Every structure is written in C-alpha cells, then in structure tokens.
Amino acid sequence: MSPDHPHRISTWDPVETSEGAQEQLPAAPSAVLRLPEGAVPDTGQLDIERGDDETMIINMGPQHPSTHGVLRLMLELDGEVVVRTKPVIGYLHTGMEKTAEELTYVQGATNVTRMDYLAPLHNELCFSLAVESLLGVELPTRAVWVRMLMAELDRLCSHLMWMATNGMDLGSTSMMIYGFREREMVLNFYEKTTGLRMNHNFIRPGGTAADLPDGWEDDIEVICDTILARSYEYDELLTGQPIFRERTEGVGAITAEEALALSATGPILRSTGVPWDLRRTMPYLAYDEVEFDVIVGTYGDNFDRYSVRLNEIRESIRILRQVRDGMPKGDYRVQDRKVTPPPRGRIDESMEALIHHFKVFTEGFRVPEGEVYMTVESPRGELGCYLVSDGSAKPYRLHVRGPSFVNLQTLPHLLRGGLVADAVAVISSVDPVMGEVDR
Amino acid sequence: MAVGTVELCFPSRAEYHGAVASARSDGFELCSDVCAVDYLRHPGRSLPEGVTPERFEVVVNLLSLSARRRARLRVQVPEADPVVDSLFDLYPGTEAMEREVFDLMGIRFSGHPDLTRILMPEDWEGHPLRKDYGVGRVPVQFKEAPGPR
Fold first, then answer.
1. ipTM of this model?
2. Residue of B3, B5, B33 to mutate, interface with A, max A Cβ within 10 Å
C-alpha cells in the first residue's frame, strides 16, 4: 500500500462534516465496533472507502503476546487495513471492588496494590489518601516525602517497563533487555525497602509500613545517575533510528479534542499537547515543593507518546534528586494508635500497646461516614478512588477509576485506518495494564 | 473557586442529563468517572434537604481542566426502575464506564449505544456489586469442585 493511500492516515477524519463540529467528534460512528459474538458486521454503517465489499473480523488475543496481558481485540479488517475495533475485556476480572468491601481498611491496601501491577505503589497511595481524607489525619512531613520518593520510583519503573515492551513490540529486542535491566535496579531498591518486588503494601493508611533503609541516599544516587545516563543511550538506540521513527511517526494519532471527549488522561492526553498532569495542576503529597516540567507532545501519535514517557523518566529522576536532598527528618507514620500499630518494641513493655496492636490488626479502625473521590497521577493517567464509608471498619463501597480502563477506549480511534502491523505498536503505546482494566 | 475544589450536586433523575450538559458548557471538559453505589445496607447517609434517598446512586465525577476543579453529581435511582439517561452524547468516554455500571450494578442507561456486559461473561446472571448479591459460594465450573456450601 502506498504511503498516500487514504487508509494510511490513521487520524479520525470527521467525514460527514455536516453541522456542529462539537457534536461530530464524539459521535464519529465508525471506529468502534459494537457487535456481539458471532454476528456479522453491518458494513452499511461504514463511512470510509473500502477496496472490498466484505470485511473480515479477526480476533487478536487474548493470548497474543503483544496485547500486554489478556486483552482481546475484535478487528474488522478490510484487507490489511483496520476499519473498526472492539476491545473485549474482562478475562482478568476478579471482582476486586467487591473483595474490598469484605476487607478492613488495614487490609485494603493489599487488595488495591494488585490492580495496576506495574505501578502498585500508586494504587496504595490513592487508596491511602482517600482513607486519610475521610479520617482527617494529617501526615508527618517525612511520610509525605517517603511516599513521594516511592511514587516517583514507581513511575520510573513503570515507564522503563513500557520502554522495554514497546521496544519489543517494534522489534527492538535490545531495548527490551535494557529496559528490564534498568527496572531491576529499581526493583532491588524496592526489595530492600518494602521487602517485596511487587504488590508492596508499603504505603498504608496513616503513613508507610517502614522507614527507608540505611544508605538509601546512595542507592537513589546510583539509580538516578545510571538511568539518566542510559536514557541517552535509548535516544541513540531508538529516537534517532530511522526504522523506529518510520514505524511510530504519524501512526495512531489522536487530537486533543478526541482525547478529552474519550476521557483519556496521562501520556495519551499530554502527547496531544494538553499540559494536564495532576502533580502540577492539582498537587497532592508535596509535588508543589519540587521542580519538574510537564512534558507535552504535539501530534498525539505513537512517537509523541514515546517521547513523553522517555522525558518523564528524566523528570522523575529530577524529582528523585530533589526528594533525596530535601527529605525531612521525623516520623514515617502517624503516631495515632487508633490508626497505625505501635512499634514492635513497645508491645513487650506496654499492655496498652499490645491492645492497640491487636485491635488494629483484628478489627481495624473505624472511618467516619462519608464519601470521597481522590485522584493521583499514575504513570498511565488519572487514577481515582471513590470511597464510601458507612462508619464501620470496612469500606462500604470502593470504586477505582483505572486509567488503563478508560484509556483503552481510545484504541479503536487510534487503530482506525491503520495497518494490522501497526496495531501492535498502537496497543503498546496506550500502555494498558490488564489487571487494572479488569480489576 | 480555588484550585482542586469539588462541587457537590444532587440532581434528580429528570434533571440529570441537563445538569451534566450545562456543566459541560460551563467548562467541565472531561468526565473522569461514572460509578454507582448500592445503599441497600447503609445505615443512613447524609443528603441535603429535599433529596429522597433511593437504593442506588449514580455518581459522576467531572473535571474542568481550565478552572482546575471537579464537580461530583450524585443521582438517586430507585430500585424499581433503575434507568438513567446515558451521557454518551455529551462525553463519549463514558461508554465503557456506563457499561461497567450496568454490568456490575444493573443500572440501565437509556441512549447508550451498546449496553452489554463488559467485565462479566455475556451470559452471566445477576449484578455482582449489588449488596444482595452473595460473596463467594459461587459454583465454579472446575472439575470436581465442591458445590455451594
């Protein structure tokens, strides 16, 4: 197919430009396939030129290695060109929101951390912020900064993982090895700090589980220096490489209006040129006390999403260095015995400490009645937590707004008019984590 | 309005779509979340004067990028007729979120283009996030799995 073939342009052309461009954008009918299993698609609704009268439905996934988990796409193809797409999800649905209603607030963090398994600390952070907001507790500054340190490491780690898999999807196996190599450094630091490489349960309502280990400053220094230096190697390997640019530039483009209409957030929205980053626009933790830039793109294509993420790695390193230098002294959790357990040493000496310890871990703590919607900027976008409490020790309802779940809706629009071969690259550039999509 | 403030709003079912439409023209460009809560076993929530509590509540979180603030709309939905207007024509991004609410909570959205199950299998019965839907004890289709106890 020639490069100027109309199908090559994977933007969302409002073909019927009749009345009201505002109404047009959302209603563009032909990118999303809405079709039950086994039905024959109605090609009469299609508004793009086709070479054939018949289209073909091909299932991609759920076991396809490049769908990043158990995502299944029903692709309606006209020859090699993707016409409409239906993302089919739910293969990893384990009812975590229902489970959360059976767990106390103390146990809750272990549950939510398993949602977005590539950025587990952000899930814990969002949940903890929501619980603390209902409780009305004020955290010590050190707890806030430790959380910020871990959240930025999380972003670094998640974006490195994305660089690795995206490289793999585009045929660069070296990038995959490099990405995993660098991620390993961060995971080693996690292991040292939280005891685990994944699903940490480190950020809990009331603070964090433990203080940072001795010598953490040196570890952060090594991580920052190494990864920053290597991020310039990625530039050499991918950014300037003609094959990589050919495969990413202009592929899977989306405009800012479409991204907003489809509720997309995170790197997808920023790649279209909208400078929306909750760390900057609605600061939480102590993000208003550190300096960093919000990275935006221009065209909203695969290449822009790549460069947004690559530069966010560098911005995270910038934040990490400031956190290392500015880390305040103090407590890493609230000293409110109704919320956090007493130190282990106190239990042997004090009956009261023993009772508090027992109460926190058996019954948990009661949270005043109310509802709250708390958001943080996860590596994938706005991670929201809507928490309803009825005054007991368990959440009455916990709803998590997973950024991947919402961002996945942009996929049909990104894929439309592109080639099947580009589909793999486009899926990767959306960066869905199925654990969070299905919950 | 200060940055990061949240406006709470309790429209009735009839006013719901109009209220979201006017919020959208007031600069709430992005609908960040649609979810629902089943208040069946809740001992009593605080609602403003004039709002009759019903079993279900659809909660919509809107975000204004220009004004940097949020708005939350809570709509009471009766158990007997769990239908509300879809926001698809205002924010196409609500398509998947409304499907999720329908799937897990059983609230129907009139005007939605494809109101089918999204997370549960297509032939699933019941809506798992409802409070009267049991936890666990679901017969699993594995060989020699113990039945419901």
1. 0.86
2. B33
